[in-house]
Amino acid sequence: ADKNGYISWDDYRLMALRTTFQQNNGEYNEDIHRKYLTHSKQMWESLCSDVGGNKDGKVHFQDLVNFLYELTSRTRHFEELPDFLQNLAIEVFHMIDKKCDMMWDRDEYRFGSVIWCYVTELKEIDKAFESMQSSDDRKRGGITLERFKELVTEFFTSLDANSPSRNIFGPLDPNMADEILCRAAPVC
């Protein structure tokens, strides 16, 4: 969240606060915030358990990348992803599913992309959404939770930089990956 190359409990606390406002139409609600803080704490502890942290209780971004790279050879299904990734993905899905119909349509994907990504063109968002849709998704009018789980699994396990799943959390240009990793991780 603060782009310093480390993931910390503060990043997860900020995510809980953002989620509180997003889920409550821009209003703060202490009960909702407490619920998201509890959930965020569980995700944070799972991340630290799986990836490890330094003496200051922070996880270096590069350590997370290395951990995710190791997942590519042994993970084929959503349920095989670490708990912190499963929980984060499900939270993101529900946060963006404003209609609560267990599916993302184009407008909901736009909403999520604008909130979380550095995107300036609506056509870029729409192109990313279209690239992820299967023919069944198009018939249904969006991406269901089950399809979302497939795309999330592919996102975290595929070595194909051009996989449509790269856009599941918003448009991602695979040509920018090295630059993003180096900017986020001071070791480059």
TrEMBL record:
<dbReference type="InterPro" id="IPR002048">
    <property type="entry name" value="EF_hand_dom"/>
</dbReference>
<feature type="domain" description="EF-hand">
    <location>
        <begin position="39"/>
        <end position="74"/>
    </location>
</feature>
<dbReference type="InterPro" id="IPR011992">
    <property type="entry name" value="EF-hand-dom_pair"/>
</dbReference>
<protein>
    <submittedName>
        <fullName>Sarcoplasmic calcium-binding protein, alpha-B and -A chains</fullName>
    </submittedName>
</protein>
<dbReference type="GO" id="GO:0005509">
    <property type="term" value="F:calcium ion binding"/>
</dbReference>
